[in-house]
Design brief:
The protein contains six helices and twelve strands. The protein has 249 residues and is an alpha/beta fold. A six-stranded mixed sheet has the order 1-2-3-4-5-6. The chain has a six-stranded mixed sheet with strand order 7-8-9-10-11-12. Strand 3, helix 1 and strand 4 form a beta-alpha-beta unit.
């Protein structure tokens, strides 16, 4: 399998490029619209054909590149079925594997950051989106988030994976690329260290995080699979414009 981890610096988002060496099919997990040209160039350089753009959830901090990728390449769009997005071609559901050549994603419903959030298991890797980050987790105070649900998603589902399972998160803000289930169980300050549900709820309630600066534009745009809003303020134009620098992680 061909694997690339790509980083978008404005929202500190990781996009994952997976390619089947047998069929030449590729998919992108959590593509970002302002990194569209980078992703297409990477796919072309590897001699692959994009088959699908897959999102873990409706993002609040960036616009997905799914719609523009479909318009440019004819690929399909996969998104959680619970969101009932009319623009999605494939509805993601736990227990229903998705396959492209030799690439088989096993979706895990991991609500808590959002109610429809899904992680994806692929062999020895798990793509955890915003449910489980390196030494952290996504916030739970908007988009039907719920701390108790996130606790159960991580400790009951993700932490039941083998300790050696590699954790590839949806974001990182400290230039870290990969973790493991065993590492997160051992040292994640929010969800590891055998934290109780009560302790986790207290931690999340005490974060006092500011209102997400892009959410009012990102969520409506992402409900259309990545339609950039026409009324985007000038200081946020970069979130939908082409990035001049978007390095690989």
């Amino acid at each position: 399998m061909i694997f690339r981890q790509l980083f978008e610096p404005l929202s500190s988002t990781y996009t994952y490029l997976l390619g089947c060496e047998t069929t030449g099919q590729a998919l992108l997990i959590d593509p970002v619209v302002n990194s569209l040209e980078r992703d297409l160039a990477a796919i072309q350089a590897l001699g692959l054909t994009l088959a699908c753009a897959v999102d873990t959830h409706i993002h609040a901090d960036h616009i997905t590149g799914a719609l523009h990728l479909k318009e440019r390449t004819g690929c399909r769009i996969a998104a959680p079925a619970m969101d009932r997005l009319p623009c999605a071609d494939l509805g993601v559901e736990e227990g229903k594997p998705m396959q492209w050549g030799e690439i088989v994603l096993q979706p895990l419903h991991t609500p808590g950051h959002t109610d429809s959030h899904h992680a994806y298991v692929l062999g020895q890797r798990v793509f955890t989106g915003d449910a489980l980050l390196i030494d952290g987790c996504g916030r739970t105070d908007f988009q039907n988030g719920n701390a108790a649900e996130l606790y159960r998603s991580v400790t009951g589902k993700l932490f039941s994976l083998p300790d050696e399972q590699l954790v590839y998160p949806g974001h990182d803000y400290q230039q870290r690329w990969v973790s493991s289930i065993g590492q997160e169980k051992a040292r994640n300050p929010r969800l590891g260290l055998a934290r109780s549900l009560q302790e986790f709820e207290q931690i999340m309630a005490g974060l006092n995080l500011p209102y997400p600066k892009f959410i009012d534009h990102a969520v409506p745009g992402n409900r259309q699979c990545g339609r950039c809003p026409e009324d985007l303020p000038e200081h946020m134009q970069a979130y939908c414009g082409s990035m001049t620098e978007s390095p690989q992680g």
